[in-house]
Amino acid sequence: MNIYRNPFIVGLWAPVYLVVATGATTMDFLMTAIFIMATLGVIGAYVTDFHLVSGLYMNEVVHKTALACLFGMLFGLMLFLTMTGLQGFDDTADSSPMSPQGMFFATWGVMTLPAYPLMVFFIFKLNKRDLEEEQRVREEKKKARRSKGGGPPIINKGGF
What we know:
Blueprint: H1 7-10, H2 13-27, H3 29-47, H4 56-87, H5 100-127, H6 131-148
C-alpha cells in the first residue's frame, strides 16, 4: 500500500488542522468564528470545482479534512454545553483550575476524538473511488451544457 494513501497516516491531517482551530478557540471566540468561516470557504471551494491544491486526490483530502474538523468542532461544542449543563452555571468569579496549556490540550483532544476516526473513514471511502473517471465525466457534462447554450438568453456570449 502506498504510504501517501494510507488512511491512518493521511487521517493525521485532521488533528494537525485542529491545532490551529484549538489555538483560535482558546484565544478568542471571534477567532473561532473566523476559522469556521474559513473552513466553510474551503468546503465551498471544493463544491464549486475551484482547486485549492494541485491534484484531484489532494483536493479531496483537503475537503475531507475540512468536513471532519467541522464535525469535530461541533462535537466539542456539544460536549462543552453538556458538561456545562450538568455542572450548572456558577456566578462566582473563580480562578480556573486548569492551566492554559491544559485547556489547550483538553480542547484539542475533545475536537480530535471524533475528527480522526471520521477522517480515516472518509479516506477509506476516497481510496475506493476512481477520481480520474469522475473528473472525465464531469468535464463531459460541462461540455454538453456549454454546447446546448445553457443559461438564460441574456447571457448569450455570441453578441447582440
